[in-house]
């Protein structure tokens, strides 16, 4: 066995702190001397006894504070509706059957007007103005 045939060591073992004076890492074990950080664990958010930042900030008040909890509508473009046969009814159940939306998303579907529609349909879902004009142009109707 020669030096150039040895396997490379990928990881180095961690320092063993506090193992006596002979190790060169004894006594304080890399913690410096005295003080709160040397003696025990303190929270990362601890600010030396001052009033913490989270308590200094005001409460969230007013309109739109819970906006992140509101669900956005599931967007579906008009061109995707060409999958349906002529004069069929498009509602949340039929969209799930065709595999265009999942069962969970079916409650909040809105059809937008991107693309072309060639099939006349009866739509019973929320629709944008451009989608409404394209559906009516193709010979379909909208009933909510």
Describe, in plain words, how this protein is organized in 3D:
There is one protein chain. The protein has 144 residues and is α/β, with parallel strands linked by helices. The protein has a domain at 74-142: Ribosomal Protein L15, Chain: K, domain 2, CATH 3.100.10. Helices cover 17% and strands 11% of the residues. It has 4 helices and 6 strands. The strands form 2 sheets. Strands 1-3-5 form a 3-stranded parallel β-sheet. Strands 2-4-6 form a 3-stranded parallel β-sheet. The protein is elongated and about 90 Å long. It starts with 35 loop residues before the first helix and ends with a strand.
Low-confidence stretches: none
Biggest sheet: strands, sense, closure?
Answer: 3 strands, parallel
The overall average pLDDT, rounded, is 88
- Rg is 33 Å
- Kindly state the percentage of residues in helix: 10-25%
Tell me the strand percentage band.
5-15%
CATH topology of the domain at 74-142: Ribosomal Protein L15, Chain: K, domain 2
- In N-to-C order, the SSE pattern is HHEEHEEEHE
**Helix-strand makeup class:** alpha/beta
Number of strands: 6
Biggest sheet, spatial arrangement of strands: 1-3-5
Regarding CATH, which class of the domain at 74-142? Alpha Beta
Tally of separate helices: 4
Distance between the termini: 83 Å
Task: Give keywords.
144 residues; alpha/beta; Ribosomal Protein L15, Chain: K, domain 2; 3-stranded parallel β-sheet; 6 strands
Please render the helix and strand layout as text.
Blueprint (H helix, E strand, L loop, with lengths): L35 H4 L13 H4 L17 E4 L11 E2 L1 H7 L10 E4 L9 E2 L2 E2 L1 H9 L3 E2 L2
Parallel strand pairs: 1-3, 2-4, 3-5, 4-6
């Amino acid at each position: 066995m020669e030096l150039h045939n040895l396997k490379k060591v990928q990881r180095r073992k961690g320092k063993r702190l506090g193992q006596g004076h002979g190790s060169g890492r004894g006594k304080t074990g890399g913690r410096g001397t005295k003080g709160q950080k040397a003696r025990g664990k303190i929270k990362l958010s601890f600010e030396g006894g001052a009033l913490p930042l989270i308590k200094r900030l005001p409460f969230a008040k007013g309109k739109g504070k819970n906006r992140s909890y509101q669900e956005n509508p599931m967007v579906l473009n008009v061109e995707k509706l060409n999958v349906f046969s002529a004069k069929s009814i498009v509602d949340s159940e039929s969209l799930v059957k065709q595999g265009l939306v999942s069962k969970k998303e079916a409650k909040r579907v809105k059809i937008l007007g991107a693309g072309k529609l060639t099939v006349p349909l009866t739509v019973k879902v929320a629709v944008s103005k451009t989608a409404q004009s394209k559906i009516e142009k193709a010979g379909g109707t909208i009933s909510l």
